[in-house]
């Protein structure tokens, strides 16, 4: 049981270290995320997994591109955006289907970039994310305390016999 308590303490220390590291590199995380998003945009017409990821992201968050819809022109042709950027998108639509986007008349196409929407989503749910993290921490600390109490109780029982 002492080994179990020590293991929980080690896990707790690792989680705390990862949390501190994540907080300290959040700016680098943002630029790395943008870079990865750009890579998957470049592969949109080539890799089905990237198409599915972008279609899911853009339809769920009602966004288009990383910062705006016109970023897609470089990857899917000038004046085109993935159908998932458009208001009339259905999840049953043909994979890789495109729709027209006119910057002068942007109606029918999601205008917000997905990076901004993702950031907002995390910000909106940060309290929930932190609550889950604190809940897990509480369970780990309780596990350490209970394991130590049980080990102490067993040791006392052994001494009595």
Written overview of the protein:
This protein starts with a helix and ends with a helix. It has 161 residues and is mostly helical. The model has no long low-confidence stretch (mean pLDDT 87). The protein contains 6 helices and 2 strands, in the order H-H-H-H-E-E-H-H. The protein has 2 domains: 78 residues; 72 residues, no CATH class.
Q: Helices and strands, in N-to-C order?
A: HHHHEEHH
- Name the poorly predicted regions: none
Query: Helix fraction?
Result: 55-70%
Largest sheet: 2 strands, antiparallel
Radius of gyration, whole Å = 24 Å
Gap between N and C termini, in Å?
20 Å
- Estimate nothing, just give the exact number of structural domains: 2
Shape: elongated
Find the count of extended strands (DSSP E, 2+ residues). 2
Strand adjacency order, main sheet? 1-2
Arithmetic mean of pLDDT: 87
Hey, roughly how much beta strand do the residues contain?
Answer: under 5%
Content-based structural category: mainly alpha
The helix count comes to 6
Which key terms come to mind for this protein?
161 residues, mainly alpha, two-stranded antiparallel sheet, 2 strands, 4% strand, Tetraspanin, Tetraspanin_EC2_sf
């Amino acid at each position: 049981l002492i080994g179990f308590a020590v293991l929980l303490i080690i896990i707790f220390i690792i989680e705390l270290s990862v949390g501190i590291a994540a907080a300290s590199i959040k700016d680098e995380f943002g630029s790395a995320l943008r870079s990865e998003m750009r890579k998957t945009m470049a592969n949109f017409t080539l890799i089905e997994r990237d198409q599915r990821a972008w279609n899911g992201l853009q339809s769920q968050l009602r966004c288009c591109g990383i910062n705006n819809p016109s970023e897609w022109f470089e990857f899917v042709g000038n004046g085109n955006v993935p159908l998932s950027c458009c208001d009339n998108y259905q999840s049953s639509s043909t994979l890789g289907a495109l729709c027209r986007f006119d910057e002068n008349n942007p109606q029918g196409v999601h205008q917000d970039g997905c990076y901004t929407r993702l950031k907002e989503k995390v910000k909106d749910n940060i309290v929930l994310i932190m609550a889950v993290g604190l809940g897990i921490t509480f369970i780990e600390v309780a596990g350490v305390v209970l394991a130590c109490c049980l080990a102490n109780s067993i040791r006392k029982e052994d001494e009595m016999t």
